[in-house]
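Working notes for the structural subgroup meeting. M.R. asked for a predicted model of this chain before we commit to crystallization trials. I am recording the input and output together here so anyone reviewing the notebook later can reproduce the run.

Input as submitted:
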Amino acid sequence: MLERDMEDLIANYPDDFFPGRGFQLIGRQKSFAGVGRFDLLFVDRFKTNILMELKAISAKYEDATQVAKYKDELQNRGEKHILMWLVAPHFSNSVREFLDRIGIEYSEIHEAEYRRVAERHGSTIRSEVLTAMQEIAPRMATAKQGRPKAGQRTVLPLEKTIPFIKSTIHDLWGKQQRLVTRDQLAEKLSEEAWVRKALNAAGITDIGEQDKRIGNAIDFFSAHYKLGTYGFEDEFDRDRIDKMWAYRPKQK
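Returned structure, recorded in token form:
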């Protein structure tokens, strides 16, 4: 499991990891007051800003000192209502003592807990889905041959686009418990940096045209759901909302 997977799960389900604190996500991979770049930014019910750093391996002393430098800089700039928080699967006693001494919160969260939360919400681990898709990419390419031209309607890489759409359906269904619409999928896809990069590389630089191509990627998914090309129909149910297909994971 990658750090990005852990970030996704904490961002989507903060109450599962920090119950009773009322964390609300306000940003990801952003700086705060021009200082540093934090993995996750939350605000709690007391309007305190929670600046959270995640590590996929045991926290090192260097990780703690970096967060401490951010805290000092923010305090020097007069920022108030700030709480720094470091998350890792393990903290040595020396790192714990250092964090306690300088007033930085920390939490040990192990991979098993991330997986339990993902399973509870029917959420997939995105990096593992991508790996699986890379392994079956040759079969997917073969399956496309001789199919209708739906396969030509997107310039986005299938090995990224299809796993992302599938993962997003699981994630949004887990959060909202209602059908995931085409517009929701297109919005989430448009937020991914690799999507814009791929479109720019293909010479599609107009934002309106990019949004159209992003929509085409969702339509590609819909077309091949009907065709049964990739087995989408085995994983998802769908129904129409305002004449557009919307999806949810198959119910057990």
